[in-house]
Amino acid sequence: MALTTTDFDTIAAISTPPGEGGISIVRISGDDAIKVADKLYRGKNLDKVASNTINYGHIIDPETGEEADEVMVSVMRAPHTYTKENLIEINCHGGIVATNKVLQLVLSNGARMAEPGEFTKRAFLNGRIDLSQSEAVMDLIEAKTDRSMKAAISQLDGNLSHLIKHLRKDILDVLAQVEVNIDYPEYDDVETMTSKLLREKAKDVHARIVQLLKTAKQGKILRDGLATSIIGRPNVGKSSLLNNLLHEDKAIVTDVPGTTRDVLEEYVNVRGVPLKLVDTAGIRKTTNKVEKIGVERSKKAIQSSDLVLLVLNASEELTDEDRELIKATSGKKRIIILNKTDLPLKLDIAQVNGLTNGDKVIQAAAIKDDGLKDLEEQIAKMFFEEGIENSQNDVMVTNARHIGLLNKAKQALEDVLKGLDDGMPVDLVQIDMTRCWDFLGEITGDSYQDELIDQLFSQFCLGK
Ligand code: GDP
Questions:
Q1: Residues paired with 75 in a beta bridge
Q2: Per the confidence metrics, is the pTM higher than 0.85?
């Protein structure tokens, strides 16, 4: 049941990224949000202004009378707000000191510091969005390409939720029917009839889940990126190739706060597919020290990749190191790039074809951008062979948590079918059907545990 007012206290945080900027926003949510802001605000009486208005004024320290910033204050009244609570956004000038000062004043006048993701958590707990939609908020913020963004928006719009809710309703209907049949048997063969009903529904829901899971592979890549490494011995043209890939669309570098450079994540947008680059530190040339990737380090990168781009030098004969790398990548999805085809050919291409089990070989000259289009096309084809263009409007599962739960739900239905085949009593089979219903409910948050909610929202950024 959706709530319009809550027992929650009033929370506040800076919702814009830390640092200097053109503007920064202190957000306050809760029953007392407007009251707290009013204590600090010199301008109109915020308690009296209409909802969804933005108001010019100043933030003043009520104790000293000292001015902290010149601001615009947005007033949004419950329930039609992001959190469904009273919501205030103080638009500050964007200076670090002034914004922190405004936040401190808010915190010492009745609000408490929000936890990461707490505004969105309230949107969920107050029933404005369900759990999968809350997760989509984060996905949208973190989207690396336009396609990733579209998938997140579709989920935020509730397309996945609707589908899951339909499945759950169908299961509930059949469970209710089973109850009725058991409690008020109209016919002698009620057990047979009920089994038939359960079997039909289990098969139907199973097929729909299988259909949905078909989108998982692509969906997960869109959300999390495709771990990709560029492998090859020194000087074959790895960094030139990387630069080519980065050419049209600069890498999106995600710095994980509070961590070292090692986990810096870099993404390249290849036709909407976010390639998450593995170990580019070894490829990028630093100014004076050229760091070479050793074979051992390459093997490590290969291991953690979904896709390997193996670069060979077409202007030289195959070396032992090339052979070793061909071998090390043989179990992986890979594309072999014969680089430097602008120079006289020395590499025996037939030999390479023989060694690479018919894997795709692309001829390129990174120095001239040659072969880049072929490479991009091949990457998109390899991972989106079913045609992502067509699936854009359909529902997609992108999130590993959802995929895991759908697999569990699918398994529970298989247990239902097996139970029926084995002639198990209907009331036992019903238990598996109910498990399936529960698993699906965990996706939307209709059935959830507090720890899960805490853990999920703690991954959000502060102020969201
Ligand atoms: P890495 O060590 O594998 O990263 O190789 P680099 O990208 O640094 O390239 C090594 C050298 O080969 C550089 O001097 C590049 O300019 C040159 N190079 C890279 N790609 C090509 C190419 O397609 N043709 C030619 N002729 N030279 C290339």
A1: 53, 88
A2: no
